[in-house]
Design brief:
single chain, 209 residues, mainly alpha, Tetracycline Repressor, domain 2, 9 helices
């Protein structure tokens, strides 16, 4: 009887092989043949799932995001009681930082994708698509914080949301360059959030993951 192949699992395995290579060589130094070898399949098998490096990268980035969302849900579920907007925002931002090997690899792949997007219009369009949704999500949490009295009413939540994205991107760069330790980056994030959520009812700090 023919062996049943889990095609989605095979695609994820290929994506993970791409992460490992791209995180050390960059995308320009990543060949389909190398990814196939790292995934322990033939080049022909790989091309059955992905016809181009860009198609494979798009799937790999989506898979990274799915895993990150799973980890965020796990972090929030582990918190005591009903999570407040602060909790959801803080755990989401912390997951974006390279605090461990998995998130570090994910960030390195995203940086490789960013470098490609700077020079390739089609890749750049795809990279831009996720920013408005992320900004909107963070703004909705800040707006909910205002409704609870945890965030000052005068705050421009859309601007603050974009500043948070920029803050995490900057902290990520400094962790990857070994200018900051992961713990130091997380402490700086908490410091910023403690000023943003500055009402007496809002938490001043949050525990490390």
């Amino acid at each position: 009887m023919p062996k049943q192949v889990d095609h989605e699992a095979r695609r994820r395995k290929i994506a993970e092989a791409l992460w490992q290579i791209a995180s050390t060589r960059g995308l320009e130094g990543t060949r389909l043949r190398d990814v196939a070898a790292a995934a322990n399949i033939s080049l022909g098998q790989l091309q059955h799932y992905f016809t181009s490096k860009d198609e494979m990268l798009t799937f790999a980035l989506g898979h990274i995001e799915e895993l990150a969302e799973q980890r965020i849900r796990q972090r929030i579920a582990a918190l005591p009681g009903e999570p407040a907007p602060y909790d959801v925002l803080r755990e989401s931002l912390a997951e974006m930082l390279p605090l461990d090997e998995k998130s570090r690899t994910g960030n390195l792949v995203q940086i490789a994708y960013f470098v490609r997007a700077v020079h390739d219009e089609e890749t750049r369009k795809k990279a831009q698509e996720g920013i408005p949704a992320l900004r909107g999500f963070f703004a909705s949490l800040l707006r909910a914080g205002q409704e609870r009295g945890d965030v000052a009413d005068g705050r421009d939540v859309e601007a603050e949301a974009m500043l948070l994205i920029g803050l995490v991107d900057g902290l990520t760069s400094y962790v990857l360059l070994d200018v900051l330790t992961p713990d130091a980056a997380l402490a700086l994030l908490d410091h910023h959030l403690s000023g943003l959520f500055s009402s007496p009812s809002a938490p001043a700090t949050s525990s490390a993951p």
